[in-house]
Amino acid sequence: MRAYVEFAKKAFQNNIAYRADCVAGIINAIIMIFVNICVWKAIYEDEQAVDGVQFKMLITYVVLAFLMQCIYAMDEYRIENKVRSGSIGLDLLKPINFSGYIFSYNVGILIFRVVLQLTPALIISIILFKMLPPFSLTMFALFLVSMILGYLVLYCLNFIVWISSFWFYWTFSLVTIKDAAVMILSGALLPLWFMPQAMVDFINLTPFASIYYVPITIYLGQMPMEEIAFALLKQLIWVLGLFIVGRLLWRSALKKLVVQGG
Amino acid sequence: MKKKPLYSPIEIFVLLMKYAKLSIKSILEYKFDRVFITIAIFCREMISVVVMFLILTRFVRIKGWEYNQMFFLYSFLFLSYSVFVLFFAGMRDFDNMIYSGEFDRFLTRPLGLMYQIVASRIDLSAALGHGIVGIILFANTAFSVGIVWNAKNIFYYIVVLLTGAVIQASIFLFSACFSFWTYKVDNLRNMIFFNARRISGYPLSFYPGIIQKLLMFVVPFAFVNFFPAQYFLRKSDMSSYWNGFLYMTPVVAVIMFLLVYAFWKKGVSRYSSTGTAM
């Protein structure tokens, strides 16, 4: 266990080296939130509801979605780089669990981003955009749980894509297509309540809504209590399901692995 | 004393074709990968289009902009970016040419440096990925927004598309100049460039003054899509801008390119290799 904590620490420290990028990331998130709010203002101008509760909720949705994008960012090409450079051979020799190592590395990045990106960006957002507070304390707690589950769903989904590098060597295309699907279907850019019913029905059959939409609607108090339990359970099932798929793929990937020189 | 050029224009052109042939060959070497990358880029670019589409199916029009007008405005961004990476991908990848030492090889050859940079790269995957999105949007909107496609309008369209590509190339070349002084600015550049592009997807008039000014005078995407589209559409929100802006795209492109080129020349004159030349 100690080793994994060290990996996370290492990832944290690695990221500190890129302080300028970190600050740029905060500014970028604030600008994108601002711009999106401008567009929504323009959209709602015709409907004369710019000052209503509904609009405030929408702003809060946009802020949360962008802040979550900040902390949900992972190191997409770590496994691919290791497979292509052959250094994965050495990693497999070490007495550690490789997937555990990748996970703790990403947790390190997550902690870094929560501390150094999310916290300042959140404070600025609260001041600038006047986002709504959580619906209630209970909802806030449930939001945190749901967000962690959302992170795990995304992580397990990502892991499956990353593992594909054992077969394809280059995963840029798959990662990009996966990102496109996540951005549209998870409600990261547009709340599901604006989408056509048929599309929502489809999304409900996929893990995507679990990533952004479910946590944010819980925060906003838009989901009735009895539905929350079900939604959380669904998130958990997706985590387990995707995790198992990832494990199976990992096993066959190891059989497939070819290292040239190492 | 004027130096006699080493090669005639015809030879230069033939050489350009040879470069193009080589690039295409290296692209076709990995057909499957390239097709896959093209699809990936297409999907990535469709994100914002799909989101806009979903918003417009729900809200029908925004501030008087109909959905086909919005997408016509958006199509400029994709088509001119496609032209940019087809012809000027070398300017986009210039910082990498310095890190990899490829630029050092250019210095040893008896040909113009800018020529070699531009000729050595064609990014077909990106050109197609963006281009297909652009063509889909254009084909669905260009004939339903009330444009008469006479010779004058077609000429204007082609000019703004090409000069819009030059504006984007200049932005990339400008940031690449910093690699002469070994500052790494590509992350910052990508963030500024691609977000400015995303912002320009919606009409300029949706944004507060400061963002409008930025898009007009700092990262001048307004001249890549908003003003050219306004030339055709003449929406009422054009009244708050100077009418001359409709014709400024080529001017902005030429001024930007000349300024950036001068800056780039200065960089070349004090360039010292990174020592990684092959």
Detailed description of the structure:
- The complex is a heterodimer of chains A (262) and B (278).
- By secondary structure, chain A is mostly helical.
- Chain A has one domain (2-256).
- Chain A has twelve helices and no strands.
- In chain A, helix 3 runs antiparallel to helix 6 (98-129).
- Chain A is globular, with a radius of gyration of 20 Å.
- Chain B is mainly alpha-helical.
- Chain B has one domain.
- In chain B, 69% of the residues lie in helices and 0% in strands.
- Chain B is built from 13 helices and no strands.
- Chain B has helices at 9-28, 31-59, 67-87, 89-92, 94-100, 102-107, 113-119, 124-141, 151-177, 186-200, 209-218, 226-233, 249-269.
- Chain B is globular and about 60 Å long.
- The model of chain B has no long low-confidence stretch (mean pLDDT 87).
- The chains are: A mainly alpha (262), B mainly alpha (278).
- The interface between A and B is medium-sized, with 33 and 32 residues.
Mean pLDDT of chain A: 90
Instruction: List low-pLDDT spans of chain A.
Output: none
Number of strands of chain A: 0
Distance between the amino and carboxyl termini of chain B: 35 Å
Q: Percent of residues of chain A in helical segments?
A: over 70%
Order of helices and strands of chain A: HHHHHHHHHHHH
- Percent helix of chain B, as a range, is 55-70%
* Measured distance between first and last alpha carbons of chain A: 27 Å
Radius of gyration of chain B: 20 Å
* Large-scale geometry of chain A: globular
Low-confidence stretches of chain B: none
Please name the two chains that share the biggest interface, counting residues whose Cβ lies under 8 Å from a Cβ on the partner chain: A-B, 33 and 32 residues
Strand content of chain B: under 5%
How much of the sequence lies in strands of chain A comes to under 5%
In total, how many domains does the architecture of chain A comprise? Answer: 1
Number of strand elements of chain B: 0
Assembly annotation: heterodimer
- In DSSP terms (H or I, runs of 4 or more residues), the helix count of chain B works out at 13
Order of helices and strands of chain B: HHHHHHHHHHHHH
Rg for CA atoms of chain A: 20 Å
